Amino acid sequence: MPNRTLGFLAAALASSFWGCGFFFGKIALAEMGVGSMVLYRFLFATLALLPLLLTHRPHFTASEWRTLLLATFLGVPLQFLVQFTGLAHTTVSHASLMVGTMPVILAVGATLFKISGKKERLHLLGWIALVVSTTGAALIASAHNSKSLGGPTLTGDLLVVLSLIIALGWILLNKSLLARHNAIVVTAYGIASGTLMLCVVVPLAYGLPPIHGISLKAWAALAASGLLCTATTTLLWNWGMTQVPASQAGILLNMEPLIGSLLGVLILHDQLGVLAYIGGAMILAAAITLTTQNPTQPADPALV
């Protein structure tokens, strides 16, 4: 029987740890390129999951293996390389606030694709929340300062949003696998498969990752992002999705932009302009409204 309390707690912890991902990533990006940083992050994550890979055998059908590999391609090499290319061109705070659009993206995805065998129809309140969230993202993107070295840029902000749209495919495909398989198996073999993909893609597209000349601070950030922000978070989130509906857990995704932007401002000394604060507030308000009011209803079976 699902445990809603533990499910929501797992989702909240996952979102909170994800909120640290941009922070650790920015530290590593100061000493290496995007491809190397993402590859090392997932190598650390796979190392952490190695005991689970050895003790949990997968029982996927051929079709399910194809689903897993497609979900992994979208959720690991494609999403992360796009997302951290965006981070390399913007600030931690801007990138984190952009992640606040994810609950709305999920809600729209639920109206277009089947989740757990059904579609959902967005009510008027949901479409209003979508417009407000999109406007908030536009305000944040417009608040960039191209004259500031290392500051936010429109390109960087939009790449982060693009990565979230790509992540939608990973979430929907993973959800179908989690309905039939253990969360540990889906997580461990998904991350391991994604790491193997990165081992092929990164050297070809970015060159061999550096080994020497990397500071202990950067290695620690990479290890933390792999162990805490990838392996632990994905396990927690996938297990949480087996206990509570994704639409109800969506509100907890707002922990990620909150923690990420706070880390950027308080530790990395990011500067947020008035438009960025207004845009961030609009995104969070829209996400909270959308997930707490649940402005969706099952679509007419005839339309599914």
How are the SSEs placed, and which strands pair?
Elements: H1 4-18, H2 21-29, H3 34-55, H4 62-87, H5 92-99, H6 102-112, E1 120-122, H7 124-142, H8 154-178, H9 183-206, H10 216-241, H11 246-249, H12 255-266, H13 274-293, E2 296-298
Antiparallel strand pairs: 1-2
Helix pairs in contact: 1-10, 1-12, 2-10, 3-9, 3-10, 4-8, 4-9, 5-8, 5-12, 6-7, 6-8, 6-13, 7-13, 9-10
Order of helices and strands: HHHHHHEHHHHHHHE
Structural class label: mainly alpha
Main sheet summary = 2 strands, antiparallel
Helix percent reads over 70%
Number of domains: 1
Strand order of the largest sheet: 1-2
Q: Residue ranges: pLDDT <50 for 5 or more in a row?
A: 295-304
Strand residue percentage:
under 5%
Q: What value does the Rg take, in angstroms?
A: 19 Å
Please, how many helices?
13
Oligomer description: single chain
List keywords for this structure.
mainly alpha, disordered C terminus, globular, 304 residues, 13 helices, 73% helix, 2 strands
Q: Can you describe what's shown?
A:
- By secondary structure, the protein is mainly alpha-helical.
- The chain has one domain.
- The protein is built from 13 helices and 2 strands.
- It has a two-stranded antiparallel sheet with strand order 1-2.
- Helix 1 packs antiparallel against helix 10.
- 49% of the residues are buried.
- The C terminus is likely disordered.
